[in-house]
Amino acid sequence: MSLGTNIQFYRKQKNMTQEDLAEFMNVSRQTVSKWESDTAFPETDKLITLSDYFGCTLDELIKGSAEENFTEDAAGYDKEMNSFTRAICLGTATVLAGVTTLLFTVGLGLDETIATAIFMLFVTIGAAVFIVSGIKHGNFVKENPNIKPFYSDEQKRDFRNKFPVFIASGTVLVLLGIIALMVMQSFVDKVVPDVMTEESFDALCAAVLLLCVTVAAPLFIYGGMQYAKYDIEEYNKENNPDKPFADRLMSAISGGIMLAATIVLFIMGFCFNNWELCWIGYPIGGVLIGIVNCIFGAVKK
């Protein structure tokens, strides 16, 4: 294919008119038309700008066949992964919001039965989101265990630049919650017994921390899942029917750890009424999963 044909193909993939591309390149529409009809050749700096914008190399733009190199997302992978990411973020935020609401209501002296009922409502909604999205995503994976890579280097690079922002924002929120908890705890001796018990005040302190965690958790999850979305090779490896036993075992253990963390949350909360610390199982679970991954990674080597 000629340079002009490649430019025209990439332009149409971007849903741009000749006028749109001309405005972006700061040239006239007639100039773009001449490029595409091969009656004029772009200057070197224009070629570099075009290749960066279209997400291809200079050789691919000038000598290659854009249509042959272009890979379409025929399976709807990007749409499914975005939908699944949003669902997991929503479900997680809903459950954590339930814990936060429970702590606030207990701290404000609301009847514990009503507080627990409100909490269970949040958990029910969150569980429904997890179940529906999990089944839907599982069906997609079964139908599409292998996806042909289609993301351009530019798309991957753009998200890699955004990824630190999600992680840093979530970390800052958690640290702010811890700082707020420490500051509030310094006033525990000044709590007026007739107004609020020390236990209620502790619940309010924990609620402030959990509020920050509720906002931070979806940021971590969104960043992590979207980062993984662009690694299609890993997706194909993970869903390979002939996946090694060690990898399947590692996935099963990781899932079991997070289920155990959820069980710890309910036991500490409902059996020991220790809602301010029941969330601790999740970060511990995350660390344990990291340890499991390191061990299995070393064994496979």
Give a description of the structure.
This protein has 301 residues and is mainly α. The chain folds into three domains: 67 residues, lambda repressor-like DNA-binding domains (434 Repressor (Amino-terminal Domain), Orthogonal Bundle); 155 residues, no CATH class; 58 residues. Helices cover 76% and strands 0% of the residues. Helix 12 runs antiparallel to helix 13. The longest helix is centred in the middle third of the chain and has 33 residues. It is elongated and about 85 Å long. The protein starts with a helix and ends with a helix.
What's this, in brief?
With 301 residues, this protein is an all-alpha fold. The chain is built from 13 helices and no strands. The chain has helices at residues 3-13, 18-25, 29-36, 44-54, 58-62, 66-69, 77-107, 112-143, 153-185, 198-229, 232-238, 245-271, 281-300.
